[in-house]
Every structure is written in C-alpha cells, then in structure tokens.
Design goal:
Length: 314
C-alpha cells in the first residue's frame, strides 16, 4: 500500500533543498522536528504554494496555474487533477484535525492526519497508514513550539526528528493557493457528507480562482472560501452506471440556505461560529459528475462573478 507520509516527506525534502528559490525558511526545533515556514516570516510565493498543496495531497494530486474567464472577467486561477481523489483529497488534504495544544491552535491538514487517525473518516475510506515519517500542513501564522511538535509526533507514532510541519497563514500567497487547491477536496467532502461512497470517484479535475491576498487572516478567510464557493468548478468521474441527477443537485454551494453573500458576511452573521453555518455551503460553485458505466454527465450550480467581485475587490 502507498505510504502517504513517506511520499509527502520526499516532496518536503525537495522544497527544503530549494528553500532560497521558493522563498521559504527551514528551521529545526531542538527535538529535531523540521518546520518549513511558507508565508509567515518567509515571503513564500506561487512555487511554494504549489509545493504546499501537492505535499498536502501526498503527491497524489497535481497543481498548475492557468487563468479562468468568468463572464468576460479574467482571473488568475489554478487547476487541480488527481487519479486518487478519495485518498489524495480526504485521507491526506482535508483540514480535518484541530491542533489545539498548550495554547497553540492551527487547523491541520496533510497526510500526517492518516498516521494520527483522529477522525472516523479513515474507517469509511478503509485506509490504514503505515509510515516512517509524518508530514502535517498547518494553516497558521504562529510557529509551532517544540512541545506541540512533540505532541504531534507522539500522536503520529514517529520520533520528533521524523516529523515535518509546513506552515502558512491564510493571508499570504501560499494561503490563497493552498486553499484554492482544495476545490476538488470540498466536492469529495460534500459527497462523503451525503453518504456517497467516495471510493467510487476515480478521477477529479477542478479549477478555482486565486483570491487576492487580504489585509489580515480574517479577511483572507472570507476571500479564500468565496473563491471555492462562488468560483470553484469540479468534474468528477464516478464508477457505476447510476442516474446521478438527484445527487448532483445537492452538491454545489448554491444548494445551501446560506448561499448568496460573501463568506465574511455569512460568518459574521453566524457569530463567527463555523458550526452555526449550514454545512451544505462548503462546496464548489459548479459540479459535474460523469458516470463511467454509461457515459452520462450530470451538472449543477454555476459560478457567481457578482459575489466574487464583492469579495475580492469590494
């Protein structure tokens, strides 16, 4: 079986070896844990963002930059492709672990979660991770202290010296890139929430606008979510010959009662409580499903330039 963490470790090694060119900073904590700063004190950039996102997917997904045109408006964007969608996007990339320890907090994504196995998700995926190293990607502006790194390593079952932590704040180029690169992941997660067997998805393709870097992390939280919710487009190829017409109608962000306003406004109305927001909102703007068995395609949703403009430049 593939080792997600060992694959990610190889990619992290390459990024660290090219740190100057990628404008990232590599440090080693006293316990031996490697920390790669991709956008807090380090400048980061598009190459670091691509590497961050691909490491987060354990090298089972590829990110490329290409513009999109929405209603005649040119926008910088990226594309994501994967031939192992459930594993790349959910077992690895999904930001499913709240790292909250000794006053330190970050949303953790990446294949290290599979080693920690803190989520029931892995039972549904039938994934049992075996690795000699662990790699986590943290959405945070604060460098992880040694005590937190030690805690993560213990949970992952590896020595601290075998742990790599990549960090990037939301309000950074890398933050914009790595969140936009979750466009396929959000579609897979929505399918999983609707009790669809995501292991049936055999290929994923997505595109997402790149939001401008915001003035602070809270504003960036709004813009990065809006990029996916109102600009993300995903095409998934699914095993079987089902009629997927009813399913696809439930997938786009527009299926949510909270759809229609920039995410920052929705978040504020919810008292800044993610759990008070309709979970059906967190999905790409437009989704197409193709049945591998009968060749039929089913599509729902649309991109919404008006909300994107209010979010990005309003």
């Amino acid at each position: 079986m593939l080792s997600l963490n060992d694959r990610a470790r190889e990619l992290a090694d390459r990024l660290a070896a090219d740190a100057d060119a990628a404008r990232v900073e590599v440090t080693t904590l006293a316990n031996g844990t490697r920390v790669i700063d991709c956008g807090a004190k380090a400048a980061g950039g598009f190459e670091a963002g691509r590497c961050f996102a691909e490491i987060c997917m354990a090298g089972l997904g590829s990110v490329a930059y290409a513009p999109v045109v929405i209603d005649g408006r040119w926008l910088p964007a990226l594309t994501v492709t994967t031939d192992r969608p459930a594993v790349a996007c959910l077992a690895a990339q999904y930001a499913g672990w709240r790292l909250d320890r000794d006053g330190y907090f970050a949303m953790a994504s990446g294949p290290g979660r599979a080693a920690i196995r803190a989520e029931e998700l892995y039972d549904d995926l039938g994934w049992d991770e075996h690795a000699s190293s662990a790699v986590l990607c943290l959405e945070t502006r604060a460098a992880p202290p040694e005590v937190v790194a030690g805690f993560v390593a213990e949970r992952a079952g590896v020595p601290p010296s075998a742990l790599t932590l990549l960090t990037a704040p939301t309000a950074s180029i890398v933050g914009s890139v790595q969140i936009a690169a979750r466009v396929v992941e959000t579609a897979l997660h929505k399918l999983h929430e609707l009790d669809f067997d995501v292991r049936r998805v055999v290929a994923g393709y997505g595109s997402c606008p790149l939001p401008p870097v915001a003035r602070d992390d809270m504003a960036a939280l709004g813009r990065t979510n809006d990029a996916v919710l109102y600009g993300g487009q995903v095409h998934l190829t699914v095993e079987g010959d089902d009629d997927l017409s009813e399913l696809v109608e439930r997938l786009p962000a527009s299926a949510s009662k909270d759809y229609g306003e920039p995410f920052g406004k929705v978040f504020k109305a919810a008292g800044y409580d993610f759990y008070a927001i309709d979970p059906l909102l967190f999905s790409p703007a437009q989704i197409r499903l193709t049945s591998l068995g009968n060749g039929r395609s089913f599509e729902a949703g649309r991109v919404n330039l008006e909300v994107l403009e209010r979010s990005f430049w309003g």
